[in-house]
Amino acid sequence: MVPLLAIRPIPQPAPDLTGIAALAFTSANGVAALAVLTPDRSRPVFTVGDATARAARAAGFARVESADGDLDRLAALLAARGGGVGPVLVPGAREPAGDLPALLRGRVRATALAVYEAVATGAAAPQAFDAVLVHSARAGGALAALGPFRDQVAIALSAAAAAPLGDRSGLEIRLAPTPDEAALLAALGNPARRV
Predict the structure, then answer these.
(1) Co-location of 16 and 67 in the same domain
(2) What is the extent of the structural domain holding 130?
């Protein structure tokens, strides 16, 4: 396996959680990075999907609710809670793929906190790879820069993750039917979900 991106925590002091009513995570990477910064696990947690929810529970958060999918569903879940949620902290990437606080504007007060960054490894793609799993738009961009491709397959977690790949000659692009790891792996053996 040759990773295209490396996840690096952003060193910083423990965040001040005074006045924060809940945490919202868009990735397991955000959970892991915040868990190192603070021992506080007292707030309810809302996650983009089940894998992130599992990571939050494993990190010691007891009250975890999953949006079962994507950023829009997470925003809808938080908005459905309305004033019952209060101010939300969104620990995540320095350059997030989506802007949850913007999606919540006017409905729930939310503030982003960069706790990690995804950095291109500069690794060259192995010439003999058959398929690559693309989890984010950043990974899609890193892969796109590696061409040319020869009868290879990219399986993307979402249309947003596939977008940077465009129409690459020699690269078949498939989409997972739902934005989760199980669907991503299932799409590996299912050529029917092409972009």
Answers:
(1) yes
(2) 124-188
Cβ-based neighbours of 48, under 8 Å, separated by 6 or more: 25, 26, 27, 66, 67, 69, 70, 71, 73, 74
At 170 the pLDDT is 83
Residues 131 and 53 both lie in one domain: no
59 within 8 A of 126, measured Cβ to Cβ: no
Lowest mean pLDDT among 47-61, 73-87, 178-192: 178-192
First to last CA, the chain: 24
How many residues are listed for the chain in this entry?
Answer: 195
Of 118, 153, 175, the residue that ends a domain is 118
Residue 182 and residue 136: Cα distance in Å, rounded?
16
**3 state SS of 132:** strand
The maximal CA–CA distance of the chain, rounded, in angstroms, is 53
C-alpha dihedral, 33 to 34 to 37 to 42, nearest 10°: -150
In this model, does residue 51 exceed pLDDT 90?
no
Distance from C-alpha of 14 to C-alpha of 160, rounded to nearest angstrom: 32
Judge contact between 3 and 121, C-beta under 8 A. Answer: yes
Question: Does residue 174 share a domain with residue 102?
Answer: no
